[in-house]
UniProtKB/TrEMBL annotation:
Protein name: Uncharacterized protein
InterPro entries: WAK_assoc_C, WAK_GUB
Cellular compartment(s): Membrane
Membrane topology: Single-pass membrane protein
Lineage, top ranks: Eukaryota, Viridiplantae, Streptophyta, Embryophyta, Tracheophyta
Gene Ontology CC entries for this record: membrane
Length: 311
């Protein structure tokens, strides 16, 4: 049965237009959209499968007015170098990803190898520490050990303290320095006279994590260790554990099958839904924008007295 109401007050024309537009087009929940190509489909870079929350660092775009935005988590931009090497930057240094454990919808670990190790596999010389952003950590010492490089050490005639034996210095040509300088490499627990800090002010010191499983035998008893044998452990790389507290907006978005979009400063921008739609209130299961109001028909008719009837 149709319901009719008699309005005793004249309706303004603007109100009539609002009623008519709402009835014919519906009230949208969100009018925002984005280029769906911004969200990466799983793809191979060499042997590494790259998928959300990783993203290709070259594939950024404008998202709700934010330039250089991306679909993925902060710090997980990967450059596919030459189409066969997945490269991740940490502290300005390049690391090649050898594997990603990204199953079951949760990122757990990434294994990386320093680019300098790959460039000189015979006897790699590492001249920087590993600098991690706040969203990555290195697992505990049950799976990781540390190799320490003491580079270009100088012990002048005034030095009378304890120091490593000259015969334990690295003999690779690329470590040789002009003059009486020497370089050493030890596992952290094997550093001689560690409590004396003999290296302070005399060496450049760099520490590199390695997998314990990648260490073969006892370096102290390995004649090849100082000739570059330590490179085998470095080639195995080291693991990075994901330790990122996602903002609540991202948690809510992913809970509705959306993907999180961030800007270049690492701030959450939007919930990215399928089909190029931005989720309303970070929710991809909300009503589709522009959906008509259900079975609502409004007719506005004037009568001869100048009043209006709503049917």
């Amino acid at each position: 049965m149709a319901l009719s109401l008699h309005l005793h007050h004249r309706l303004p024309l603007a109100l009539l237009l609002v009623v008519l537009v709402a009835a014919s087009h519906g009230v949208p929940t969100s009018g925002d959209s984005y280029d769906p190509s911004l969200c990466l489909k799983p793809q191979l870079c060499g042997s590494v499968n790259i998928s959300y929350p990783f993203y290709l660092s070259d594939d950024t775009g404008v998202l709700l007015g934010n330039s250089s935005s991306y679909c993925g988590y902060p710090g997980l931009g990967i450059k596919c170098d030459g189409g066969n090497q997945a490269v991740l930057e940490l502290g300005g240094e390049k690391y090649v990803i050898s594997s990603i454990n990204n199953t079951g919808g949760g990122l757990t670990a990434v294994t990386v190898v320093d680019q300098e190790v790959l460039d000189d596999q015979a006897c790699p010389k590492i001249d920087h520490n590993v600098t991690l952003p706040p969203w990555f950590t290195i697992p505990n010492t049950s799976v990781v050990d540390y190799i320490v490089f003491f580079l270009d050490c100088y012990f002048g005639p005034e030095f009378t303290g304890l120091k490593p034996d000259t015969n334990s210095s690295i003999t690779c040509p690329n470590f040789m320095s002009l003059g009486p300088r020497m370089s050493f490499v030890f596992l952290w627990e094997d550093v001689p006279y560690r409590d004396t800090n003999w290296w302070q002010g005399r060496c450049q010191v760099f520490q590199v994590p390695v997998l314990k499983d990648g260490l073969q035998g006892n370096p102290q008893n390995d004649a090849g260790w100082m000739k570059g044998g330590f490179g085998k452990a470095l080639l195995e790389g080291f693991p990075l554990a994901w330790d990122y507290q996602k903002p609540q907006e991202c948690v809510q978005c992913e809970g509705t099958n959306g993907q999180c979009g961030y800007n270049q400063t690492g701030q959450f921008v939007a919930c990215l839904c399928s089909g190029g739609r931005v989720g309303d209130h970070n929710n991809c299961t909300a009503a589709t924008p522009g959906k008509p109001l259900s079975k609502l028909v409004v007719l506005v008719l004037p009568n001869c007295s100048g009043d209006y009837w709503l049917l």
